[in-house]
Amino acid sequence: MSDDFNMSMRKFLKQVGVTSQQAIEDAMREAGDTAGKTFEAKVVLTVDGLDLEHVVTGKIKGA
Predict the structure, then answer these.
(1) N or C: which end of the chain has fewer CB within 10 A?
(2) What is the mean pLDDT of the chain?
(3) Separation between Cα atoms, residue 20 and residue 14, nearest integer Å
């Protein structure tokens, strides 16, 4: 793949990671006492113009 593709991909994934972490942290703070709780998480990635739907699931432990 080209350098332009790699750079745009890295920039997009960094933005996804940073903004997602901020959103999760904000939601945890707003939820109050999350200690000892585990939350199911799911991300669905789609790309317009491509036949792509990528799903990632996981667990996030409360603080």
Answers:
(1) N
(2) 97
(3) 10
Rounded to the nearest angstrom, the gap between the alpha carbon of residue 9 and the centroid of all alpha carbons in its chain is 15
Query: CA 31 to CA 46: how far, in whole Å?
Result: 28
Amino acid at site 15: Q
Note the pTM of the prediction, 2 decimals: 0.87
pLDDT tens sequence across 31-43: 999 999 999 999 9
Please, where are the H alpha helices in 1-63? 3-31
Res. 15: pLDDT tops 90 = yes
